[in-house]
Amino acid sequence: MEQEFASTLLERAVSEFAKLPGIGRKTALRLVLYLLKQPVADVRGFGEAVVKLREEIGYCRVCHNISETEVCPICSNPLRDASTVCVVEHVKDVMSIENTHQHHGLYHVLGGLISPMDGIGPQDIEIDSLVERVATGEVKEVILALSATMEGDTTNFYIYRRLAPYPDVRVTMLARGVSVGNEIEYTDELTLGRSILGRTLFSDTFKEDK
Fold first, then answer.
1. From the CB of residue 85, how many other CB atoms can be counted at a distance below 10 Å?
2. pLDDT (tens digit per residue) in 148-204
3. Which CATH number does 77-209 carry?
4. CA torsion, ordered 31, 35, 38, 41, to nearest 10 deg
5. Could you check whether 8-56 and 77-209 share the same CATH topology?
6. Per-residue pLDDT tens for 49-59?
């Protein structure tokens, strides 16, 4: 049974918080009641920060990572190795890999994985733009840093096939220090860092299967 509130403002605030992932109505109510106890200036600052976040942060036109500018700081950094592109599923994965300090190249955020069961095909994620980046000739290595899941493996293979017309480009993948079934964001930094350093050619995975 849904709880009723004496205040429509309180009810609206609880309903909005409850829309957040992992937040039920009880937790939402607790958060709203906490905000009610805070100084008005603090709550206003909280609200303004959220609105500013949504209005002013977009996505890098090159790698699709979140950015306040047209090209993100990583892509525009002349000290990064532009010949190496690490392909990840989500923005959170960029943060995880950056925390290892083992990757000094650029990134490419797909925004998802191929999953026919969920109706997600290659055209629904940023694979075409990845191929376009490789076609410029500047990229010499593409690191596939996707989750070790069925969807991740399917996407890896599809990208590998799409990049086949560019034989001079090395297509590598993380060493299997990342356990099967694990998502990148939940892998500890030490293991993830070693997996980046120990990456192998994607084509070698076919030899292992034989």
1. 22
2. 888 999 999 999 999 999 999 999 988 765 444 455 555 556 567 667 776 778 876
3. 3.40.1360.10
4. 140
5. no
6. 999 999 999 99
Task: Tell me which residue of 202, 145, 137 sits closest to 165, measured CA to CA.
Answer: 137
Superfamily of domain 8-56 in the CATH hierarchy = RecR Domain 1 (1.10.8.420)
Per residue, the 3-state secondary structure of 38-61, as one string, reads CCHHHHHHHHHHHHHHHHHCEECC
Contacts of 186 (CB under 8 A, 6+ apart): none
**Domain residue ranges of the chain, discontinuous segments joined by +:** 8-56, 77-209
User: The whole model's pTM is what?
Assistant: 0.79
Tokens linked to 44: 């206003």
